[in-house]
Amino acid sequence: MSVTSRYREAWEGFWREAPGEQGSVFWDAEPALTAGRHVALFEPHLADPGLPMVDLGCGNGTQTRFLAGHFPRVLGADLAAAALAHAEQADPAGQATYRVLDAADKTETEALHAQLGDANVYMRGVLHQCEPADRQPLVDGIATLVGERGRVFLVELAEAAGLVLRGLAQSPDGPPAKLAPVFRHGIAPGEVADAAVPEFLTAAGLTVLASGELPLTTTESGPDGTPIELPSKWLVAGRTG
Fold first, then answer.
1. Percent of the chain scored above 90 by pLDDT?
2. Where does the Methyltransferase domain lie (predicted)?
């Protein structure tokens, strides 16, 4: 496997401990504030909206279920089986399907592509949580999944978000309640340079088709009660040749 067992266990531990209620996890914001905004940016660039949609790093499936209301076939994929247990429990009607996937493992992404064919991929805030050595393999895996006709919509924390997160972590009262488990399980967000994200895509053979900035909404509030939003950047990419 391309990820270390420590890294996988960190995510399994986080999701085993996480409450099942929507909004109890730091990034588990309402779809209207997250995937809903993203679909409006993503959809105009899809070469084929009928392709399967893969929600990569789907966690407990909040955004996956939203995507399943907009696309004909949606698969939620995550490294942690414990995350998918939450997702499946919250989706008794089976709006989407779910599977464990290490997207940085070439064998696994090739197998999924062989099963699905070309796919559109939605990934929110996963790259910056990867260990540095896994970032290019992860984007290479995305390129495998999109194939010739798919598109990827990628949302990542901007460099400026690091300052916000450090400030929250170093608060005299400690980090906010929903952020504390992230640090406790050793999966504190790393920093990815803004310029590095399009470089990862280019190195994977993908062309950036559109990009922009949009605050990433969280489920936590600051001391004054204002919802915490983190600066983020989004990109749409695919093969154009």
1. 59
2. 54-147
